[in-house]
């Protein structure tokens, strides 16, 4: 198994959730790990990434200041702390290796295969 995501659930607007992603050794040695999400009827989009070498992170504008990505290298696990959740954050959240896109930011999925994801539902 490539990755296993967990931690999703239902929460009211303004609430918090913490997602976890347990990754295989092969996946976790990627230069960066990150989170993506897909809302119903929409394309999958980048959320956040964290680099292996120096721990630098980058975020989609829509989640900056609310979400925090972190990693525990001893556990091959990546986390996404989500605070001040909004109904528009409702989506299935996926974890993957991340690579730099043509623009230079780490915001593109590295692998073409995905885990089962974890559902996050935020009610207004």
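^ structure tokens above, recovered residues below v
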């Amino acid at each position: 198994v490539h990755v296993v995501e967990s931690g999703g659930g239902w929460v009211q607007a303004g609430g918090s959730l913490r997602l976890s992603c347990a990754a295989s050794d092969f996946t976790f040695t990627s230069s960066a790990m990150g989170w993506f999400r897909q809302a119903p009827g929409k394309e999958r989009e980048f959320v956040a990434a964290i680099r292996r070498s120096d721990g630098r992170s980058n975020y989609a504008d829509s989640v900056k200041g609310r979400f925090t990505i972190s990693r525990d290298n001893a556990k091959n696990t990546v986390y996404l702390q989500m605070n001040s959740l909004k109904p528009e954050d409702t989506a299935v959240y996926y974890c993957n290796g991340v690579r730099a896109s043509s623009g230079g930011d780490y915001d593109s999925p590295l692998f073409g295969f995905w885990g089962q994801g974890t559902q996050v539902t935020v009610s207004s």
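The mean pLDDT is 95.
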